[in-house]
Every structure is written in structure tokens, then in C-alpha cells.
Here is the input.
Amino acid sequence: MKSTTAMTPLDFGALVTPHLPALFRSAYRLTGNRQDAEDVVQEVCVRAFTHLAAMRTLDQPKSWLLKIAYRVFIDGARRRTRSPVRASTEDFDATRVSDEPTPEECTEAELAERRLLAALTELDREQRALLSLHVEGYTLAELTAMTDLSADVLKARLYRARVRLGKLLAADGRAPTLALVK
Amino acid sequence: MNMSCTDVASVLDSHRMARLGSAERAQIDAHLAACADCTAAWHAQAELAALRVPSVPATLLERALLASRLPQSAPARRARTPIVVASVLLAGAAAAAVTIISLRNESAPVASTAETSPPAAGATAAATDPALDEPPTAAGRSAPQGDGVTSVELVETGLDFLPMVRANPDYPPRALSERLAGYVQLEFDVTAAGRVENVRAVKSSDPQFEEPAIRAIAQWRYLPRIIAGERAGSSGVQTIIRFQMDDPTTPSPAPLSGEALEAAQREWAAYSGDLMTAMDRLAADDLRGVELQLDEMQALYGTERADLWGFYGYLYTLQRNFDRAIDAYERSVAIHLRSSAPTSGPWVPLANLYFARHQYDVALKTLLRPRQATGVTTPVAGSRLAASGAEALIERLRALGVTEETL
Here is the structure.
């Protein structure tokens, strides 16, 4: 709830830039493709911009930005129409879930990623968000702050989400083996 | 020692998968061999950790910055509508809240800050917080009677709570063709979730107005009253919806073209939809979600929206963050004071907050400010009921020895 009067894009850029990589990585894990990840990042910036003054005073602007990203993602594609700034085509990479190349063209690793991204889309948004943010390296304490879930609820949901994802992956023809995970 | 599923989950949770000693690893393997769920979980975590993430696109920052500035430079949303409805809240048995809205002809060109508001197609009615939500004007070209532009002015209010989302009633076609004005007095309950229920028409000038009025108000949402820190329902709330068209000899000064009207209507629909989202989250007790929604709306619609600041004030009051609540309400009333309807701001909740902080002088001054701004000393129609929220507080202040004379 701040006015934007005293803020300049320069200030904003200086504050946000250090956190963009983490924000983008998390958004990519959340969404599974670059375009949507960029949309999430843009949306986060749009929301954060109105809070520049408050952001300056935060010890952990990154956590706060990620919390917004979590919320943006959980709230879903409701607003996708509003992202007016688009990436140019060369920004799109080959790992998008859609228009994938034929299996023969993929390396084993690429196939695995593709399967994982596909399986992730089967999870509900919260499960996906929790797993994505967690694997980005955040601690449970940080995640509870980001999601407003209690630690116990968070743990239980993380576990259930992993089990579900693992079973989806197994059903997709890559039965987990201990050799694989060692 | 056997590992439990919780132990395995804890290893995963703490990012220790890759940093296990051989003894611990053996125990985990033993558990995984016997537990399908943990095997799936372990596998999923390993795959997730192995996922490569593309590098940050070079132009991302630039585009993000551009996007973040767009809302501020969004196309102007100003436009006016024919308003054919005014709303008067009368204090019901349990609700000490009153808004009185009068109608006046609108003949001056618009010079307000960009605001969104309910567009009313020529024949459609709109009820709104007027000076702040200048509704897009339909020239009424498609209306049977041509130009009909009337705006609503909120002259006096002493509200504990305000309608946050309003739907436009349809003007009954027969009344429209006869240029018939009218009103409906409605009584209803506001639930703790802010929904309007049990609507009934208490009386009306003509039965044909009742159905559209009831249908419209059933879609309204109120910020429920806060009693002892909790949201509470109110029963017996009354409102009058007026249907009125202006003098057909006074043509609209700046009618919107069909396209502009459509755009304005879309904008209004989007704004109402966003407010509705905030109300839904409030009803679901998702206060954090409400705040994020309001933040987003400010980014989209600007920081000069008195109703959004009022919503913030309400939210922070619920969260018992009274400093921020006062700050937000002050922003809201400041915008109201600059508008043509200074009395319609959240004066009473603001004054109540000052009262609760024992700033009695400030509380009283707050209540007097809108009257000083308008020079109106007595509330208009329904005066005794009109300011009951404010009057109740003034009485309490008087009991404490704080009166206008002692200021």
C-alpha cells in the first residue's frame, strides 16, 4: 500500500536485478517453460513495483519476491492476458513442453526432463509450487514464510507431492530404481 | 535402527540427499526397498534436483521493468455514464449505517483523475460511489429516449460499512420509454462474508422497479462490519435505489462512442471482477490473498482510488495493524476530500480507530472534517438516521468531555 511517487525505474532495477536469476529459476521450475516463467517474473515485478519503498526496507527482498511469485503462480493463469510485454521468438528455448522434437532427437537427459516437466503439470499448482521452490534450495522455514503454511502442513504436503510425482514418473515408463537415485 | 518415512522425508526436506554418510545411506536404502511411497518421493526429488534451468534471458530485466511501469501509463479510463440510480442506505434495526445519495445533472466535462466505474449503457442504471468512480458515459444513443445523463452524488454518509462491489440495475424498459423515474427501498442482510441475502422490497414508487433493483443488489458485496475484531453479519440493512433519468433537453456534453463505451464497460467489469476476487478471498479468510489482490489492483488502476484505500484500511483493521489501517483510511478520505463528494469517505471507521487509540480530539475532528469541507451542517434527507454511525461516536466523545467546543 505505497504510493509510487518517489520511485524511479532505476531504483527498482537496482533492487530487483540481483534477485532476477533466482526469481527466474524458481518461475521456470514453477511453470515449466520460459515464456510462462517470464510472465510470472513480469507479474512479480509489476506487483513489486508498487512496493518499492517497502522493498528497500526489507532484509530479504528475495524471499518477498518469491512469495509474490508463489502467489502469482498459485493464482493461476487468470491474468495471462494481461502480460503485455512479450519475449521475442529467439528467447524461446527447445525445452518447452509443447512442440517437442521427436524422441529420437532427444538425449536421455532431455527425455528425462521432458517427462519430469510433463509429470509436474499433472500435479496441482500448490504441489508443484512447493516442490519447485523447495528444490531451488529453500529451507522449510523459508518456505513456511513464503506460503503461510505451518511447518507440519508444509512437510506433509511436500511429502505427498513427491510421492505423487514419483508415481507419475513411474507410470510414465521410468520406474524408479535405487541405482538411479543413488 | 530402522528409518521411518518421516526420517526419509526429513532428509529430502533438508536437502541432504547428496550429503549422506554411508551408514545413513544404507539405512535409507533399506527403507526404500520396503516402502513404495518413499521410493517414489526419493525418485521425484532426484529428478527435480537434476532438472536444468535455462539461463536468465538477457532482456528479461528490461521487459520486466517495462511491464512494471505499464499500469501507471495505462490508457485513460475516464469516461462518464448516465447514472440513473442512486443508493440510499438507511439504518436498519441492526445496522447503523447510512449513505445518502442525491442526483444531480451532470453537465460539466470530465476533469477527474482516471477512475474506473460502472459503465451504464444508455438505458442501464448505475449506482456507484460517484465522485470517485466516474462512470463511463453512454451517450444513450441506443436508448429509446436519447441522451440521458445523470450522475450521482453522495452527499452524506455515516457508514460503518460500505458496499464494495456494486452491480448496475437495469432500467425497466417501460419506465424508460415513459421517462419514468422511481425508487425502491430494499431491506436485506449482509452476511459475515459480505454477501447480500434475504433481499425484499420494503416499498417502491412502482412495482416495475422492484425486480431489477432486487436482482442488482443481490450481487452487491459489502465489507462486513467488524465487531470485536471479527467480521459479523448485519441484518435489516436498508438501501434505496433510485431510478432517474435527466432532463432530455440537456444533452450529454461528451458522450462516449460505442467503442469507447464498450472499452469502459470492459474496464469496469474487470475492476469489479478484481474487487470480487478480493471479496472472495476475504470471505475465505485469506487475508494475505486480499492484500496481494489490492496491491495488484493498485498497480493496475493507480493509487488514487479511494475505495481501494478504504479496503486496505478495512483489511489492516482486521489484522489489527492499526497504524497501517489509519494510514490507509487517511489516504482514502484525503481522496474523498478532493472529490466532489467529501462526505462519502470512511470517516467513521477512521474516527473509530483514533478513538480506540484514545486520540479523542483527532477522532472528533475526523468526523467533522467532511462537514467542514462541504459546509453542510445537517445531513440531508433522513438526517436522523443518516449519520448514526458518526452520531453514536460523537455521543461517546461527548460523554468523555470532547465536544466541538473543547477542540
In short: Residues 169 and 253 of chain B are 24 Å apart (CA to CA).
